[in-house]
Design goal:
This protein has about 160 residues and is α+β, with helices and mostly antiparallel strands. The protein is built from five helices and seven strands, in the order E-E-E-E-H-H-E-H-E-E-H-H.
Length: about 160
């Protein structure tokens, strides 16, 4: 279980859970309903620890209620995106690591946004929030600009007839 994993996508942190099933199989859940389906599909009720009582530190609430609170924890902030200069990153609390510009299909992000919408969101985010401002054009006087272009003070004189 990854209790504090987020997908950072275009200014929003989306919580997700990735329960280890068996033989290296994992599934990704972005909401309680999809998590319920995973639990029902792969874990029989008698061996499932996902819906028992939570530990004492959470006030003995049910684990399902704690999952509902976790999935409702969507955070909007541009702070980390600007810090890492990336529209996409994954945080993994188990390993204390952040993966920047990762492959979203690995994390089944198409369940949250379809591919066309994902592409459009990334391009809009890169063009607005993460866009670097253009450098201002230096202001030069006419004589300096003339010299830079390879002319001199005699280049534009009209010949006397």
């Amino acid at each position: 279980m990854r209790p504090q994993s987020f997908i950072g996508f275009c200014g929003t942190l989306y919580p997700f859970l990735s329960p280890y099933i068996r033989y290296g199989i994992t599934r990704i859940a972005f909401d309680v309903e999809s998590f319920d389906k995973i639990v029902e599909e792969f874990f029989p009720k008698e061996e499932s620890y996902y819906y028992g009582k939570s530990n004492k530190s959470r006030g003995n609430i049910s684990k399902r209620k704690s999952y509902e609170i976790w999935f409702g924890n969507i955070i909007k902030s541009d702070e980390y995106f600007i810090k890492y200069q990336a529209p996409v990153f994954i945080t993994n609390a188990d390993k204390d690591e952040i993966t920047i510009n990762c492959k979203l299909s690995t994390y089944e992000f198409y369940k949250k946004f379809d591919t066309n919408q994902t592409f459009q969101e990334i391009s809009m985010y890169l063009g607005s929030i993460l866009a670097k401002p253009e450098k201002p054009m230096p202001v030069l006087d006419n004589n300096t600009m003339r010299d830079i272009k390879g002319f001199d003070k005699f280049s534009f004189r009209k010949p006397k007839c």
